[in-house]
Amino acid sequence: MIRPPSDEVRAEIRAALESTADQLGQVYRLIEAGAATNRELVDGGGGANQGAAANTRVAVRLLTEGIMPSAPSIARQCIGRIRTLIRRNTLSLDTIQYLNDLVAALDELTFNDVAQAHEAEDLEERSRELEASIGSMPGIYVYSLPTFLRVPQKVDPDRYWFKVGKSERSADERIGEQQRQTGLPEDYVTLRVYLPPNGVSLKDAERIFHDTLNDIGHARSTGKRTGREWFATTLEALDRIATNQGYTIKAATGDG
Length: 256
What we know:
This protein is 56% helix and 11% strand. By secondary structure, it is of the alpha+beta class. The protein folds into two domains: 7-111, no CATH class; 114-251, no CATH class.
């Protein structure tokens, strides 16, 4: 168990969050202003969808109240947010020590075998629910593997490998094709489906995603066996591309 921050440390963290311009700071300010639901956070610019807003809310609660997340993937996201907060602010030694204690506790959770197994089961269930709700609907699909979601990309610890590509096939055909192509022992999980607006072809939609990820410097796989649809990126970046293009976002990792 991590201890709650002292009043002095909490005040300093709150001041840092208040002045932070990124999504973490925006969610903090919205909560302070009275936002009570994830939908209200999204409407206030606190995330591309309710799932993303919910994850950021977890980080705010951790920083201000010392309440730990339960999922290893969220713990790793929180580590990145805390390190950014330390890097961008002038903080007292007591506050830095408290934040480093949080990082150590989060790091332990990230590599907890039981927590990883529970999260993988939950993610697989959410993936199945998403696939069932979409059926054979065409769109841009985002896949990954449970192992990939636990191991960040080497150059940037905030990015993970995701397969981003168009599909018009049924759920069984999509997943079966992925397994045949790679021969990997794990099942793929479907994390996002982006539905383009009327008049936008899947070919153009896929090109926009790939070109945008290339333009912002998110590494692309060069492996011949894995294909060119793998990118070291984040779900937040993918959601932002979809939002900017007016796509409907269907998510498996939250209630967005």
